[in-house]
Amino acid sequence: MDGVVWETNTTALEYIFNPGKVLDSFPTPQAPRMTREEAWYNASQYRGNVLIISQPEAVGMGDNFPLALSQQFTVQSDVVEDYIQTQIDISRQTEYNKWRLGVSIGLGIGLPSLVVAAALTAQALAQRRADGDVGVQNGNTLF
């Protein structure tokens, strides 16, 4: 499927492109034999859809009129949009669960380890003090 199958002319300052309205307008003068259903099928299956924005009647421009091209795209129904949004939500929930599990494991292992390390350090210092290895000079503890 090559060539232009839909176009519009406007002098408005802005134009909102609505693929659904465009596809519902088929057949068009550029594609008189293409039904609405065929237009929807082609737009959803063909990855080479491109919007071309041009001003061929720009004053004094000749053949060098302004032209802009969009990235290639497909047009999908609302069902596909809902499916993609559901997949995004599932992915976010899975990532959240991984973080929550990681933080829980980190706190579950890290906090008791820190308490044990502090207790062992305190015990070792108490033992050294009891053995006389720790002296006090002018109010400062010497190790």
Report what the structure shows.
The protein is mainly alpha-helical and 143 residues long. The chain has two domains: 19-75, no CATH class; 80-130. It is 49% helix and 8% strand.
Q: How helix-rich are the residues, as a percent range?
A: 40-55%
Stretches where pLDDT is under 50 for at least 5 consecutive residues are none
Query: How many helices in DSSP terms?
Result: 3
End-to-end distance: 86 Å
Overall shape: elongated
The strand line-up of the biggest sheet is 1-2
Largest sheet: 2 strands, antiparallel
Count of individual domains:
2
Order of helices and strands: HHEEHEE
Give me the secondary-structure category.
mainly alpha
Beta content comes to 5-15%
Round the mean pLDDT to the nearest integer and report it: 80
Rg result: 36 Å
List how many beta strands DSSP finds. 4
Question: What's the quick description here?
Answer:
The chain is mostly helical and 143 residues long. 49% of the residues lie in helices and 8% in strands. The protein is built from three helices and four strands.
